[in-house]
User: Fold these one by one.
Assistant:
Number 1:
Amino acid sequence: MRIGIDAMGGDRAPDEQVKGAVAAREVLDEGDKVLLIGDESVIRKCLEDCPGTHEHVEIRHTDQKIEMGESPVEALRAKPTSSIALMAELHRDGQIDACISAGNTGACVAAAQMRLRRLRGVHRPGIAIVTPTFWTPVAVCDVGANVNCRPSHLHQYGVMSSIYLRVMCNIDSPRVGLLSIGQEDAKGNTLVKETRDLLKNDSNIRFIGNVEGRDLFRDVCDVIICDGFVGNVVLKLIEGMAASVLEGMLRELAESMPSQAKAILQASTDLRGKYDYNEYGGAPLLGVAGICIICHGASNHRGIMNAVRVAKDFASYHVNEQITKLLSPDRGTRDE
Amino acid sequence: MRIGIDAMGGDRAPDEQVKGAVAAREVLDEGDKVLLIGDESVIRKCLEDCPGTHEHVEIRHTDQKIEMGESPVEALRAKPTSSIALMAELHRDGQIDACISAGNTGACVAAAQMRLRRLRGVHRPGIAIVTPTFWTPVAVCDVGANVNCRPSHLHQYGVMSSIYLRVMCNIDSPRVGLLSIGQEDAKGNTLVKETRDLLKNDSNIRFIGNVEGRDLFRDVCDVIICDGFVGNVVLKLIEGMAASVLEGMLRELAESMPSQAKAILQASTDLRGKYDYNEYGGAPLLGVAGICIICHGASNHRGIMNAVRVAKDFASYHVNEQITKLLSPDRGTRDE
């Protein structure tokens, strides 16, 4: 398998991207390669700082890159050989089998949709992220690929995320909840109300009904379905709040028991580890005809290495084949 | 001033509602009354358990009440003399000057809209809640009154919340942020993009642009504007997460330093106090022709008492008059 990594995308690029590519050796099989896409001289310099051999690492040069704040579609148009655009093209042409980027998420999604296209029967791709909720990880889909959703999109997110969790996380029959503002059927906006019946009537999903924001932390479901706008707000809220609460706790404790400052810091670090996105290794863009793994912008080398692992598993468990089986219009009966 | 309290609404009703009404004496002026609306015999029994004199408390009997899970509109139709419906009617008829309820939020909103109607020029009322975000309180509007928003609704939430914060919280020129998924203008769903210009072009608001979920915890704005669906998800997420993180921190610390368990528990309690909704005393439903304060379902007597204080301030600072001044169609020029 050949896995592309956007060497230029992310807050800590290219250093952590290159280190991650090197570290990925431990999750690769014999013959597997990672292809770093970006400025060759910069990448080579980073590689020199990495100990060990790097036979599994290749480089594909480009001097264009898309910045984090750029408008995705405009940037892709203005920079046709940016690392993100080039990577999607290489994937389309079969020169790599997967894309990994911690760069501009919107540009990754747009490049994947334009170059790789969608799987047959999929209306809109969605990003499924396993959110670090301290105790029981919950997958949320979509978290930003599709901010103007229709009921059929949400329904398909339920189907695709269920497959993903089943094969990748070994959850036998994932419980799917629809994010709303009350458990009762009547609660929610128009989108949620119109989505309910689609989810209810699909025997391929274990739909448990509406869930609320607080249910992310109560082990009531394994997948939470929402539109990409709400999902993205939720994701950033969790991240901001986790940092804020931990900082607050440390401040309170440091005042009340200064002699224990070291132990408190350690406990806080341990807790932080439980919501460390680097351990989750990136979120798949479900529904595209390829493998596209999107990493947190602040990912370190562990995050990139884990994304390589996710891409490997995604391929070997045939996630896309299973999605097509359920969503493609010529799939035959559902029980086949 | 006469302030109505729904004695039957809330997870801890009627006990905490009655205790709150009694405790409210300390925030009332001479001649002010609170009117407890609900089952008279039950309320009387609760009153007997409250020490002190209760001359400021009156009772208005009804034996109908709306449960938390009921569909608002159906429940209001089926129970025309429920405490919530009756309270709104009493307000409309001038027998009370404000409504307070910790009961079914949807029913409160619907009753207020139907019985009290909207202020002139207001398109949709919205609930503005000052969220306990540990360090710097931020008002979020709307958090559940209006789940299918239009740009003009969000714009008016910006105007009304700014007035509310200015007069009630003494914030001179509140910074208004529009909740989105990135700071750049181009980021967001259709609703957000169409709302931006309305906010930008209104010189009555200090609009700072898009904000993200994490900005709730970073003191970048005083008001966050969003549709009621997103706002409600955010609110419940914060609540669920705060409890979850504190519990997690306690667990980590209890393992690493068991001898300090007591001090840790105290620090956690202190921190919890900083996000205690009871101290904020309920959220106003902005835009109705009256005063309607909505409390957290789990409010205790302090929460109810503080809601009485909010209702008093709302009246004495003439919040509604100021909203009408800016939003009423016959308001003349904006600079008058």
Number 2:
Amino acid sequence: MKEEEIKEQEESGIFISEKTKYITSFFEKTSKKKIENYCLTRLWHRLDNDEIKIIPQQYVNINPEKYALTDVYLPQFKIHIEVNEPAHYLSQVKIEEDKLRKFEIENQTGHKLYTIDCRKELSQIHQQIDTIVSEINDRISEQKSNGTFKPWQPDIEKNPDYWKQKKVISLEDEISLTNIEDICKLFNADFNKTKRGFLRRGALVHPKNSNYLLWWPAERARQGWHNKLSQDEFTITETHEDEDKRKKHFHDYYNTGQIRIVFFHNKDILGLTSYKFKGLYSYDSEQSKPEIGTVWKRISVKMSIQLEDD
Amino acid sequence: MKEEEIKEQEESGIFISEKTKYITSFFEKTSKKKIENYCLTRLWHRLDNDEIKIIPQQYVNINPEKYALTDVYLPQFKIHIEVNEPAHYLSQVKIEEDKLRKFEIENQTGHKLYTIDCRKELSQIHQQIDTIVSEINDRISEQKSNGTFKPWQPDIEKNPDYWKQKKVISLEDEISLTNIEDICKLFNADFNKTKRGFLRRGALVHPKNSNYLLWWPAERARQGWHNKLSQDEFTITETHEDEDKRKKHFHDYYNTGQIRIVFFHNKDILGLTSYKFKGLYSYDSEQSKPEIGTVWKRISVKMSIQLEDD
């Protein structure tokens, strides 16, 4: 369902829950890869647990020049899954590449990567998935018994009131706010100040400390501005199409001590847009250059919303 | 996967089992209706039994002027399932229509129709599906204990040697032969006789009795011939685009005593082609007319392959 369709349905009084939207969009997204889709639907339905979050196409940083996208990632258990359609086994070269890739991903992240070999009979494909399901169920029992299990709660991930009351936000909470109004609400900032005639400001100072800026950059150009989040999310490059504006901006922020609280405008792989908390970023004096733009580097993945010490 | 792709993969030595092909194509086919797809994948994976056959878009004859297509049909248990996306409940008129439809389908077929109401939370959608799953599992136990359970065996449905040894074929066996060669094999007919230069004959007499014709008509026009299987499959109308040929054919077969053993060329909803056994048909003297063509009516859904009495 397109975002507009969801809105339409909501307005017409039809209720579709957040989880239903997410998981059905997830399956639709993978529907063209038939065997992968089959394995993912089986994984989900055999797990039969709507407290589990599954993420498609997870970015994994292998080294500064190399990254991988795994088919599925289960963040609660740090488990990746790759569904290898029969074509993966056509050549020895491809088989060796897949092995190396698995080693690199596991080695770099400390996560576990499972591979489902789809050259087999249906019952054998099932068996492989059932093994993963039982491994995940073991992890859930473990986490529940030691109190570390965090259930998937998409309604909470986007609820500013929930996080306000929690007082601390962090990258691993996967906070995705629906709009700029919700960002303001979270920080007790005045939403009206974001309005500038018909335009919308791209940022607002934190009400408790003007050295902190609430910033909601978008990848997509807005009035000539470009903001590029690096694949590993360590840096954001802020630049302008127009050379004069770019240079002026560079000089305005040269060696600034400003800290930016970043909610990056995000269109997720399922086509749903939101502003996702990415952490705190400060000026990167090494990488910022008049011809490139201002570069912001990540300095923290966790913060106290009201900038208090605890 | 397109048929050509399947062939390609088979030729490249990659093995994908018949069941994997079928069920993954089934899911892909329904992938655009996101919630329906979600429910069907859940039904299948929770059943977790690859001896169960599921058919999408089952035709149901309600009366001579009215038919319905149900979302899913499980022929082994005579169970239909309708997935009602939230829009089904938008108006009282639609709700009443759905009720009437359910009544008509159950009344006409003696089958059971389940409806899944998708206006609910994910967990409530799950609950409804789990109820159907447990009903089906009860039926399987029942059928297994009284020896009537027929497992889904797509490899067998298309294997002429299997049916040859069985000696009797019937509509409910859902026999789908891959090509004309396999039809000939089943009846011990000489495949070479189907060749006519570069063309292929549309039929061949039964080797045991020349009053019986093995016929493999196709809906799609071939050299001007049209064969139309009625929705309820009670009649086949055989006609020609050209008026003279149509009239000649009508007169050639006027009041014939010929019986036709029909394997209708079939492109199933998943895009796979085959010749599907439809039963025995004889001349319909009431409906056949020079301007319409020759009409054949179904006289039996079961036959002994070698035309023996038992």
